[in-house]
Fold these 2 entries.
Entry 1:
Amino acid sequence: MDQVGIIAPETRPSPWGVAAKPAVQCSLVEVMSEELARKLQLEEESHVFTEEVLSEDGPFLNADNIDTSSDEVLAQMLQMQFDKEYDAQLLREEKKFNGDSKVSISFENYRKVHPSEENDSSEDEVDWQDTRHDPYKAVKPTPTPKKGFVGKGKDITTKHDEVVCGRKNTARMENFAPEFQVGDGIVMDLKLSNQVFNALKQHSISEQRKSARLHDKKEVSTAEKVVDPKTRLLLYKMVNSGVLETINGCVSTGKESVVFHASGGSMEDQEIPAECAIKVFKTTLNEFKNRDKYIKDDYRFKDRFSKLNPRKIIRMWAEKEMHNLKRIHKAGIPCPEVVLLKKHVLVMSFIGKDQIPAPTLKEAKLGLEESKQAYYQVLSMMKQLYDQCNLVHADLSEYNMMWHEGKVWLIDVSQSVEPTHPHGLEFLYRDCRNVSQFFQKAGVSETPHARELFNIVTGLNIASDNQVDFMAEIEALEKVNEDHVQMHGKKVSLYQEDDDDDGPPRIYDK
Ligand code: ATP
Ligand code: MN
């Protein structure tokens, strides 16, 4: 978006401005600005993360505090508000018109915001996922309704209808490269003709190629920014649709993600926690490249992996985290509850209070008694994870467990795999080593060493008394499983099947 001149709110009073503290407001322009992205980048580089949580700058993004000093932004906001109210009125009229009649007539074609735009559908993108049902199946984009007869045969709308088509074209602009500034047409009721759309598309492609050639280095650095324009728009839409009330600030900037705190809003048929965490998976591939092995060999994702482009692989990480969190939550293990997933952005319940995240086990200063309690919780959690969820965390350590309300909470499960993953048992052994070392250091004398912990969790009695032999046995077990898969196309039944209905049916050779 072009920089829009900012006129101080005092000189341009507006009904939308919050008069009390104009100086600390965070504007839409700012949210959309490169400066913010740069600031995030700096924060990331200086590793000042958690201190930023309660920044005095007020909410990061809030429907009420959007700067109204720009006519352009104001016009867009008003248009959106108007469209929303118009559609609500239309819905009421439709209900009234149809009454109890068995045959109903849809007014959908008269809506200002076409359902296909509302759902943000576009041909090659995964859409809002219905996180309450099968997370594996992306909800099919609401199809553009077949435009048959509407009304009394007077108004026939076809899919070639100028308005419908124009709106679709505008929505499709979102698929252009993030660097290609498409402006805010998407949120306005902008209609692009096929001709204009095609010209823009062509331009976008050639620009992309040009900048890839000329600014190879610069390209990498822009890709590093998590909150790129597309992500900002996603977040903005979440606030605008009321799912979230405000996005308050950054909780953490990790290697693979940036986590924000948000105040929950409301959704028609789903309760949203008062405090939410938004995990934005980085759209840069650098970090994910070395994590290929977690997902590529995970048979749940195997078929899809090869067909995906990099953008989609990142979305798959977010999807994987959501899916794993749901399984873990279902088993009753304390972990964030999934609210919704959109593309590479996962919204979940916030572990902590009043915008302050609970400390990780690393940060929490636990006394000996509490450490002991924590150890037993972690032990039973690991067993439950293995037995009931059929999962291995694969990055379990004091950094990925939080201490909240006297309980250990599990987070960061995007890399978690099933134990039959070709490296599943190695990952588990590494988890055991981290856990064992941490609690031994904390002085919990009951803590067994890693090998013993591994045997307790898996129930596999590996007898070796040194790490080298133990590892060799683990690898041999993994190999047996792999060979079995090679030969029969199925996995061995080392592991218990759970009744989880979240994924495609899993095949066990009983
Ligand atoms: P890292 O690379 O640092 O491990 P990551 O990208 O893997 O980070 P997470 O470990 O999931 O991301 O989250 C990073 C941090 O964000 C956590 O240590 C925690 O402080 C915070 N966080 C993540 N999820 C939540 C949540 N649901 N509630 C509160 N805080 C959270
Ligand atoms: Mn982490």
Entry 2:
Amino acid sequence: MKLEDLQAINAFLPEALHMCRATAVSGEVASYIPELSKKPKEALGICIIDRSNGCVTAGDVDLPFTLQSISKVFTLILALMDNGEEAVFAKVGKEPTGDDFNSMLKLELVEPGIPFNPLINAGAIVISSLIAGNSPQEKADRILQFFRKISHNHAIHVDMDVYASESASAHRNRSLAYFLKDNGVLTDEVDVEEVLDVYFRHCSIEVTCKDIARMALLLACDGTDPVTGENIIPRRYVQIAKTFMITCGMYNASGEFAIGVGLPAKSGVSGGILTLLPGRYGIAVVGPALNSKGNSVAGVHLLETLSAKFNWSMF
Ligand code: GLU
């Protein structure tokens, strides 16, 4: 398999973008968090960064958007770094659910009532409770500082409008969290509203494609910054995160994405997708119009097109 270099990808991007942007009309911008609905439906942008800091971009690459579920990959990593594997997996499972990302079905149906994995909302809320810190502010701040470090952008911050909108409309997440409290997964000393606040804040961190392409590149390089050589994340935790991205990173279309694109990825309801080519590229796409599975319509289409053209699939 010959992998093309960034120049070849760059030459193909305008045509690919033009083709894929047209598919956005069939999607809808998420509106259950009202503030998210303000993003342009037809936007599509991509950024790819390689190990030597080479970067290609195309389209609406400067469109700011919030991380939403993409943040869950990195809070999982931070929780693993804070607590170790055994403590984390005593509280969340390792399996896909086949249910919606905010479903509570299996929490009651299956014993023990721990969330199936850390990338669904119930699992990510439990992960938020495992972040080290003496107060919710300190936990949220540690997450933000970690995200700033791995994105190489010390200016990223919480979008307070999205945060407020998310907090005000989070009836479902509140139900999940109180259920987790009732069945003891969130323990007695955990304050449910405080955990939710940490969760809402990390979902509402605003980024651009360039920020998350850098975060993806770190995963592509097994946790070692390719430029400075600093090991930031233990390799084992990157391996765990990438495995979850393959099995449950793209909601209930993770199998379809693994077949169509063949790369570890995580999407969010804001229309972002973070993906990576192991050892080579960090890749980020934004396209706010979502398909029925909750993934960016045009974004998935673009990644399928690039993967087919440049033979990206790991499988
Ligand atoms: N903050 C969103 C929620 O809790 C994240 C959902 C997502 O991006 O999948 O519903």
